């Protein structure tokens, strides 16, 4: 009996967006948002299904975590549509400027989830919900209002179809936020310019502690009246008390404001709202609005945004076994193009880390740098598929450095703020990868290397003084010490590679020596890395399965002991050699991790774990590829395909962990293509097991790379041989230059492991 393998192709159609499902990752651990945005857009306009305070009675509210992207698929009500979101982060901020249309009696409180009629929120059904790239549509059932959203880079475009009513309202909620608390709003201001134009700003103290966002808002129809309520009574109002400011007064100011605008509507009448953001001023917001949305053509804006998505997604055209495979692949590409986000006005002006206004000359300025996550695969992916954008991101990091009073590159930065989240100084990895691969050259590369060195020598940053003096971070002086030591060592190696490329011998010698510091927290008596104290002795009560109090962050010693991406060969030798190490990896992937060992980590559930391997947390993302340094590289191929199959699904709960600003998705993209950067800045990509049939990469340099996986199937996961432009590959990695030179890479797949 002859069985024909049928593949599904995305190459035959320019409609790549048909394979994107923005609802993937909106349930459980993924926490992405399903709303409208263009690639890397400043505005990410999306429904928020609830608002939860981060603190209740002074204690952390665990329910908050479900709303770090604003939207939770399990909910049945929508509280409104806000303009800024993070995608798949384990912490959050933003949720600026929530808009909600209503009819009937005016309500300025969102009400309760279990009783939506107690406020302005509305019930909705997934059956009437449509989510596409740059388009979101839903019926707000309680008031029978059809909501549609689309965007440009800096403008959110709303279209609401109302029932007949003499009492229709559009609410502008400046209190709403993601990861909210009573004192998050420092100040808000609204100015009514005329009967259809509003401007203002919101200043918050959250994850970013000095963040100000300006807006300009226009209605397609004049409102007949307006007003606001300040939900926090001010102790001092000056002489403003002489006015009744609550209704039809053209200035509103306070910490906790909700404004409203009243209309009379006919049946099925559409009211449109254009809402522009600016990091600089209301004037900048107004210019952004006029530049990007000069008319009221909703469909035109939607189409332009979707065309930009088709162009973005069309950089890789794949064929696969099924439509679900295509949905997973192109949704991953979609998620990998949501951030970093453009952070400047249409004229290039932006607010810098020094809180002054700057102009981005010759580059696009970006923000939302979740670097602890994204240095691993997202930026290496950019370095292949769009190196010029990656260079602009590095230039944005350098602007951050220039404006920093600490003279440090970003750690985790957004909206002219450094929030210092997570560990390491992984900007240096992104920079080094670009230098080593030749995408950052000349004086620009030398200045970026100098910034990397200065960052790595900042003694007062997170245990670095001890690390530089002792060769490790001591747990009794600085927590999560083992993770920090290991990640600093990799970053130092990355600096050394950039220095070597640029001929800076003294810098190379300094940092290649520092890159060996990982050895100082490895305890050969137990075979794991573990906390070491300032007296040089290892700590007591060590449990390699436990995270809390063991010197680690978002991982345990079973996973973090494998974090020596820059020198796996020596790590394997220290852990007993290739055969013993392979058995150690086998045990990691097949062991049972009891619930108690990840109960302390809210972003990981059983679905994100394979044995003891925790794919949902980034420190493990290179681990499956470590078999390539043993005599059993076929196990890398087996494990990679298992992870692709079990950790990614085309459903709302389809991500085994947080997408973390595109890192989980970038892992999927590169691994699906058959290779992965275990150590960014090495210029090498380890061979895995491609899950696509074919892929055509349209490279920025004008060349085309075709990848073909012959005989690929769910059973044929093993790589028999690889050729590059017809020549056999005699190693287990592909060079960056081989990818960027274009041509053809062919994998011959089999159901039987090939001998090494």
Write the layout of secondary structure elements.
Blueprint: E1 8-9, E2 46-48, E3 55-56, E4 59-60, E5 77-78, E6 80-82, E7 98-103, E8 122-123, E9 130-132, E10 135-140, E11 145-151, E12 155-162, E13 165-173, E14 185-192, E15 197-204, E16 211-219, E17 225-230, E18 251-254, E19 257-265, E20 269-278, H1 282-292, H2 298-313, E21 316-320, H3 323-335, E22 341-342, E23 349-351, E24 357-359, E25 366-367, E26 369-370, H4 371-374, H5 378-385, H6 387-403, E27 412-413, H7 427-436, H8 442-456, H9 464-470, H10 481-501, H11 505-514, E28 522-523, E29 528-529, H12 557-560, H13 568-574, H14 578-590, E30 609-610, E31 613-614, H15 634-647, H16 663-673, E32 675-676, E33 684-687, E34 694-698, E35 704-710, E36 718-724, E37 727-728, E38 733-735, H17 736-740, E39 743-750
Parallel strand pairs: 35-39
Antiparallel strand pairs: 1-21, 2-6, 3-4, 5-8, 7-13, 9-10, 10-11, 11-12, 12-20, 13-19, 14-15, 14-18, 15-16, 16-20, 17-19, 21-34, 22-25, 23-24, 26-27, 28-29, 30-31, 32-33, 33-38, 34-35, 36-37, 36-39
Helix pairs in contact: 3-16, 5-6, 6-7, 7-8, 7-10, 8-10, 10-11
């Amino acid at each position: 009996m002859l069985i024909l393998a049928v593949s599904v192709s995305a190459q035959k159609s320019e409609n790549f967006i048909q394979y994107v499902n923005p609802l993937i990752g909106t349930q459980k651990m993924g926490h992405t948002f399903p709303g409208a945005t263009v690639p890397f857009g400043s505005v990410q306009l999306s429904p928020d299904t609830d608002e939860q305070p981060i603190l209740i009675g002074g204690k952390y509210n665990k329910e908050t975590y479900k709303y770090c992207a604003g939207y939770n698929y399990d909910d049945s009500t929508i509280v409104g549509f806000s303009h800024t979101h993070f995608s798949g982060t384990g912490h959050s901020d933003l949720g600026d400027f929530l808009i909600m249309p209503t009819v009937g009696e005016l309500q300025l409180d969102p009400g309760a989830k279990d009783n939506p009629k107690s406020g302005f929120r509305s019930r909705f059904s997934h059956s009437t919900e449509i989510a596409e790239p740059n388009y979101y549509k839903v019926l707000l059932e309680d008031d029978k209002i059809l909501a549609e959203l689309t965007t440009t880079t800096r403008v959110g475009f709303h279209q609401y179809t109302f029932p007949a009513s003499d009492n229709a309202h559009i609410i502008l909620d400046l209190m709403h936020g993601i990861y909210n608390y009573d004192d998050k709003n420092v100040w808000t201001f609204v100015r009514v310019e005329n009967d259809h134009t509003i401007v203002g700003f919101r200043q918050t103290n959250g994850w970013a502690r000095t963040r100000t966002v300006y807006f300009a808002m226009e209605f397609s129809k004049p409102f007949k009246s307006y007003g606001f309520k300040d939900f926090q009574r001010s102790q001092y109002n000056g002489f403003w008390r002489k006015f009744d400011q609550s209704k039809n007064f053209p200035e509103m100011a306070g910490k906790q404001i909700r404004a409203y605008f009243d209309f009379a509507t006919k049946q099925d009448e559409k009211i449109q709202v254009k809402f522009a953001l600016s990091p600089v001023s209301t004037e900048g917001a107004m210019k952004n609005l006029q530049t990007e949305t000069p008319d009221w053509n909703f469909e035109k804006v939607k189409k332009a945004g979707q065309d930009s998505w088709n162009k973005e997604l069309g950089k890789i055209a794949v064929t696969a076994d099924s439509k679900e495979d295509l949905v997973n692949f192109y949704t991953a590409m979609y998620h990998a193009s949501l951030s970093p986000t453009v952070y400047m006005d249409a004229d290039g002006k932006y607010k810098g880390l020094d809180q002054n206004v700057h102009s981005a000359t010759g580059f696009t300025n970006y923000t939302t740098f979740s670097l602890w996550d994204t240095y691993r695969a997202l930026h290496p992916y950019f370095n292949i598929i769009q190196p010029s954008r990656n260079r602009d991101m590095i230039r944005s990091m350098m602007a951050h450095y220039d404006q920093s009073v600490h003279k440090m590159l970003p750690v985790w930065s957004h909206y002219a703020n450094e929030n210092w989240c997570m560990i390491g100084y992984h900007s240096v990895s992104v920079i080094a990868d670009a230098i080593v691969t030749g995408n950052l050259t000349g004086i620009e590369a030398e200045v970026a290397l100098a910034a990397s060195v200065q960052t790595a020598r900042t003694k007062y940053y997170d245990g670095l003084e001890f690390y530089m003096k002792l060769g490790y971070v001591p747990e009794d002086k600085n927590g999560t010490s083992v993770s920090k030591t290991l990640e600093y060592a990799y970053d130092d190696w990355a600096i050394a590679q950039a220095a070597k490329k640029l001929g800076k011998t003294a810098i190379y010698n300094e940092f290649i020596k520092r890159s060996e510091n990982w050895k100082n927290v490895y305890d050969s008596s137990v075979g794991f890395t573990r906390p070491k104290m300032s007296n040089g002795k290892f700590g007591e009560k060590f449990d390699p399965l436990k995270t809390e109090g063991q010197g680690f962050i978002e991982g345990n010693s079973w996973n973090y002991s494998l974090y020596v991406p820059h020198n796996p060969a020596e790590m394997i030798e220290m852990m007993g050699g290739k055969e013993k190490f392979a058995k150690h990896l086998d045990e990691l992937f097949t062991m049972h991790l009891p619930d108690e060992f990840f109960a302390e980590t809210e972003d990981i559930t059983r679905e994100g774990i394979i044995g003891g391997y925790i794919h949902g947390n980034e420190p493990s993302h290179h681990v499956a590829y470590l078999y390539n340094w043993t005599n059993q590289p076929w196990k890398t191929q087996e494990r990679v395909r298992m992870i692709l199959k079990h950790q990614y699904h085309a459903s709302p709960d389809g991500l085994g962990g947080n997408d973390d600003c595109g890192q989980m998705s970038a892992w999927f993209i590169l691994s699906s293509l058959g290779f992965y950067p275990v150590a960014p800045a090495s210029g090498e990509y380890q061979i895995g097991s491609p899950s696509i049939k074919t892929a055509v990469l349209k490279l920025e340099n004008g060349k085309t790379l075709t990848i073909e996986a012959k005989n690929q199937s769910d059973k044929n996961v093993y790589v028999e041989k690889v050729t590059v432009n017809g020549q056999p590959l005699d190693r287990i990695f592909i060079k960056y230059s081989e990818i960027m030179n274009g041509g053809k890479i062919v994998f011959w797949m089999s159901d039987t492991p090939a001998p090494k």
